[in-house]
Amino acid sequence: MNEELTAYVSAFVDELVRSGVRDIVISPGSRSTPIAILAAEHPQMNVRVIVDERSAGYFALGLAKAKRGAVALLCTSGTAAANYMPAVAEAYLARVPLVVLTADRPHELRDVGAPQTIQQIGLFGGHAKWFAEMPIPESSAQMLRHARMTASRAAAVAVSHPRGPVHLNFPLREPLLPDLLSPGLWAGGREEGTAYTAVTEGAKLPAPAALRSLAAKLSQTANGIIVCGPQDEPGFAEAVTGLAEVLQYPVLADPLSQLRSGSHSLEYVIDSYDAFLRDESAITLLQPEVIIRFGAMPVSKALLQYIHRYPQARMIVVEEGDGWRDPTLLAAELMNADPSELCRALTVCVNEAVPKRNAFHAGWARRWRRINAETRRLLREESRRYDELFEGRLFVELEDLLPERSTLFVGNSMPIRDLDTFFGNNPRYVRVMGNRGANGIDGIVSSALGASIGSEHTVLVIGDLSFYHDMNGLLAAKLHGLNMTVILVNNDGGGIFSFLSQAQLPEERFEQLFGTPIGLDYEIAVRLYDGAFTRVHHWEDFREALGRSFTEGGLQVIELPTDRDSNVAMHRGIWDKLFSRLSALL
Amino acid sequence: MNEELTAYVSAFVDELVRSGVRDIVISPGSRSTPIAILAAEHPQMNVRVIVDERSAGYFALGLAKAKRGAVALLCTSGTAAANYMPAVAEAYLARVPLVVLTADRPHELRDVGAPQTIQQIGLFGGHAKWFAEMPIPESSAQMLRHARMTASRAAAVAVSHPRGPVHLNFPLREPLLPDLLSPGLWAGGREEGTAYTAVTEGAKLPAPAALRSLAAKLSQTANGIIVCGPQDEPGFAEAVTGLAEVLQYPVLADPLSQLRSGSHSLEYVIDSYDAFLRDESAITLLQPEVIIRFGAMPVSKALLQYIHRYPQARMIVVEEGDGWRDPTLLAAELMNADPSELCRALTVCVNEAVPKRNAFHAGWARRWRRINAETRRLLREESRRYDELFEGRLFVELEDLLPERSTLFVGNSMPIRDLDTFFGNNPRYVRVMGNRGANGIDGIVSSALGASIGSEHTVLVIGDLSFYHDMNGLLAAKLHGLNMTVILVNNDGGGIFSFLSQAQLPEERFEQLFGTPIGLDYEIAVRLYDGAFTRVHHWEDFREALGRSFTEGGLQVIELPTDRDSNVAMHRGIWDKLFSRLSALL
């Protein structure tokens, strides 16, 4: 047995747990044996084994999102680690804390043609927030401190802002079996059970004078908007809507901003801008002087184009970390601050600056709210006129049907866009998630399954190509007994391209390179993983199937067969109706 | 329309074709549109669309192996590119030429939170032989030269020794549609139709004096062996067996060395060392003085341990490129030379040095050949005594059943090891392939499907976990009408761990982390992809199913349900029989 290995690795694993990492997703392999066994033996570590490392990476990502905390990943050496690359890139860009542990061959077996040995040093490049090459395990007091300090540090770096993945590479030498009878197993942590190094991160906030000055400026600016992109901080919705109220600024809320549903005030939350900002007269009417942006970039292309129309508007981008998220290149101020703290502090300052609020520029907000309300009504009504399976209507249905405290995960490409347009404000709390770091169609099934842990009802809306891409992810539902309802929008191919310029190509070329129908019968795929499958053709059947999926549990897949061409036509029909309505209104 | 884009990208694509890249594997996406369309429009480029980029990467790898030439890959920006990581690492280590083209956002949309934008500069790190960031397309004469020169260069770097993947990253700005009516389309290449820059690579060879000196030394050394690892150069088998004959050195031939079958002399080819080098008396008897190694490290652990037993033996490692493949750390000489040229030159020198060959150390080779023949006989006989589905026997059956000029692709973990032990010399030419760069269980299905192109009969032997890992790969068979027979060795889990120290763990822990049964009914998976599935329980049925699979074509999956525990017992039974036989013999 290997005492040095046992002592070092058990200290590391124990310290991960003490530092708040209670979940590890393991893909089987030989080189990672000591970490895998010791993680499984630790009484407070939840171990889930997922064979395909690509799916495992995304599963951990979803779980970390759901928990708002760091999740560990472990794989063996070689291409196993390379399979984490997509999820690590997504985690970096979406700011999701992962502690990625890769087992490696020891130094004497690297770059000499030994089996299962790739270049794992810095494998994830700039997509890992922090990388450390671990030592060959040793059990001196100083090296056990190193194990604990590094585990503490890895967990802390992963969750500090901006959150993200960290990567530790472990060179391990045979024999790989730890000694589970070792008396020192788990020993050596801080007596209080706390982390070896307790890391606290202060909240950034501008100096009081700067805050007062900004508040004064904003108070004097009638035509301001607040734009909230994807974010998931508890308390932010209350803080930002509080600020919106004192400033009387509309809040343009991305569907992943967690602002469209919940118990905070929805009064200033604009949920239909993606639709009405396609309309020229609305854009003209709604000229902003100041734009305050929180979170990642929203999904709406109409919003992006609207912002580009007014480059002279002063854009303030609030960044909780040290990122630089402004693809418009228009930001005049980049404010490194905690978003919720900033909103609360500004609210106080504005209240002090303008004691008699509510009157001073109410007309601006009223205009936004009226157009928004009218648009929302039209989107709901017109969608419901389509009896056929219109992809947009799905989200109108879900707005009404999703239970309180459920999780809605949406795939990229069309589902996130239809969500944006058609899923409106909602007093029930629905946590809405997607992978919007790199917006890939890969890994969505696994991410949603990871996110399903701890949520009573999880609904994933996903297109067929994206579903196919991560079909392997379904194995986790079967092996770990997870509950998830998948709404599979099956238009047999890449639906988004029918909205883009590629649609001008001759049909054969378009279908070959962009439409890419793959013609799979997903009922068979779902049966492979012991899931229940329902193909629906009417909205009544859909509603019934959705309700049944919640009561039956397990993996439930509801397929909506749709048609790419008529889907485009129905979307365009709604835009035409909206433009007429707005031209009458404005 | 975008004239600069059209001119630049069409020059690049045209030049890829002129430089010998006639196949491109494309995964759909928007940013890559101009390259995809122009590749599809080029009359001499074969386009295959594969949705899952991970599978696409491995498919291209298999195709490049089969063609012994560079294959291009194309994907859109974001995690799409990250999904190539495993295949690129494998290609680098296995020395397979790929030209990886990734579309990217232009500079103004990078690192500013724009969608589908990851850090693609140098994404594959040290696993790309060469990386270049391409310019924003321009159509000046100099920039069109740049497009052609870079395409020529990329193709040439990929196929120069050591072969490997190159990566070009293309920043592309909207509008993305090329102008297919542009008069300059495809214009501007060299008139003769050749590459813009024709690259020739000279063959490395030691100076004549050094060759004569080495030949003289070898001629005076009776107890030499030649070890041939995985390699696939036409002509090498003849060259190395020619050298073996004049030196009277046995050639220990890895199953992927392409030496165990074909029309070259099999007289000195030792195919059973993996079995008899487990025997202590054989090891003692066969003490080498010199070891000449060609190709990558062989799979056999017994061989590795044998080499380690004789560190004083002079090991000469022949490297065609500038690699360093010696995980034993025992090499006394590393000779950068073309393997075939070196063998031929040495053969001439040895003949000159020892005109009366054939007698001077025949005893050594005879000893190896006798032990080898006896071992092979026993392996065949004893395997056939197991009427049940013994995983080793599969390769004894295949040795007899595979048709001339077929391709045998084997998965990692157990299939490659059983192949090594049980698949013996064979006068029919069977090309044997595997992914032995990083030895991953990922991407095997796609690699084999890529390799099936151009081979009349392709048989893939793969374990269930590896099959599951790349099940998405099966889509290529359905969409591109490929023919492949998959022999799925289904022991419901990771069979190799039952041979390793992990098997000492309590059963529950072992099964959770290492055995990892996933319990899928692969008949369903195969049906999803319109394949034919046969589950066999007797060898007679297997032989019939294999024959039928060749005549029926398409995707044919034959499942052999085996048992992990009894498989270990049967292997051990054979070793025991072998040790008794050898102790009687030696």
What attributes characterize this protein structure?
Rossmann fold, 6-stranded parallel sheet, 22 helices, homodimer, 16% strand, alpha/beta, 586 residues, 3 domains
Q: Which CATH architecture of the largest domain in chain A?
A: 3-Layer(aba) Sandwich
**SS field, number of helical segments of chain A:** 22
Number of domains of chain A: 3
Helix/strand/pairing class of chain A, anyone? alpha/beta
CATH superfamily of the largest domain in chain A: Thiamin diphosphate (ThDP)-binding fold, Pyr/PP domains
Q: Which protein chains make the most extensive interface, counting residues with beta carbons within 8 Å of the other chain's beta carbons?
A: A-B, 89 and 89 residues
Mean pLDDT of chain A, rounded to whole units? 96
Oligomeric nature of the chains: homodimer
The gyration radius over C-alpha positions of chain A equals 25 Å
- Uncertain regions of chain A: pLDDT < 50 for 5+ in a row? none
Main beta sheet of chain A: 6 strands, parallel
Structure description:
The structure is a homodimer of 586-residue chains. With 586 residues, chain A is of the alpha/beta class. The first copy, chain A, has three domains: 169 residues, Rossmann fold, CATH 3.40.50; 165 residues, TPP-binding domain (Rossmann fold, 3-Layer(aba) Sandwich); 199 residues, 3-Layer(aba) Sandwich (Rossmann fold). In chain A, 42% of the residues lie in helices and 16% in strands. Chain A has 22 helices and 18 strands. In chain A, strands 2-1-3-4-6-5 form a six-stranded parallel β-sheet, with helices on both faces. In chain A, strands 9-8-7-10-11-12 form a six-stranded parallel β-sheet, with helices on both faces. In chain A, helix 3 packs across helix 16, helix 7 packs across helix 12 and helix 13 runs antiparallel to helix 22. The first copy, chain A, starts with a helix and ends with a helix. The mean pLDDT of chain A is 96. At the A-B interface, helix 2, helix 4, helix 5, helix 17 and helix 18 of A face helix 2, helix 4, helix 5, helix 17 and helix 18 of B.
